[in-house]
Amino acid sequence: MVNGFSISGTAADRKTMLHDILDEVELTRYEIGKAALDERVLAAMAKVPRERFVGAYDRYRAFANGPLPIGYGQTISQPYIVALMSDLLEPRPDSIVLEVGTGSGYQSAVLAELVQQVYSIEIIGALASSANERLQELGYGNVTVRHGDGYHGWPEHAPFDGIIVTAAAPHIPPPLVEQLKPGGRLVIPVGEPGGVQQLMLVEKRGDGSVSSRSILMVAFVPLTRSQP
């Protein structure tokens, strides 16, 4: 048990991962504006089998608090960042969430433990296909994966209670802001590849006005767009 959360599977590794997340929260508490993450988020992190979302050659370090390559120039984010971004969405059991950048499906699975439905868009066809297969094998029937350019969101299922972007965009995409419900939240890394990137929290108020603030500095792969 770690802070009351049950840990299954590779128990020692998962316990270490949760302790690393808690340590990172303590180190960044003034930047992120909180001393603890939602207990539901931590429980989801403890439950999702992270080792199933990395390559076989990387499974021995699946629970290390750092990103790992998943092919095609993409990565699976470090556990702390996955937990923090999930927490910043303030997910509810009845939330409908959009994810831009499915990758291996790990962030999708964590969100699936927290919300009613996840719609996820991945621009790399092979990753979209393998992530969808993996998520279905693991029983995440509340995740729908689509191959496409996530910059424009998924209008057919909008508006969303929350939107999470797992790659750095040079700016906040207006279509994603438009597809937020009043009261909704968008969490997105913004910045250029190799330059300064900020994890941004965008909130749409009840009257439709929008506010944004920087949470902390991050390093993400760039958001890939379809060629015109």
Question: Keywords, please?
Answer:
alpha/beta, seven-stranded mixed β-sheet, Rossmann fold, 228 residues, globular
Description:
With 228 residues, this protein is an alpha/beta fold. It has one domain (11-218): Rossmann fold (3-Layer(aba) Sandwich). Helix content is 29%, strand content 25%. It is built from 7 helices and 9 strands. Strands 5-4-3-6-7-8-9 form a 7-stranded mixed sheet. The chain has a two-stranded antiparallel sheet with strand order 1-2. α1 packs across α4. The chain is globular. The chain starts with 10 loop residues before the first helix and ends in a 10-residue tail after the last strand. 43% of the residues are buried.
Write the layout of secondary structure elements.
Blueprint: H1 11-27, H2 29-32, H3 39-47, E1 68-71, E2 74-76, H4 79-88, E3 96-100, H5 106-112, E4 117-122, H6 125-137, E5 143-147, E6 160-165, H7 174-178, E7 180-191, E8 197-204, E9 210-218
Parallel strand pairs: 3-4, 3-6, 4-5, 6-7
Antiparallel strand pairs: 1-2, 7-8, 8-9
Helix pairs in contact: 1-4
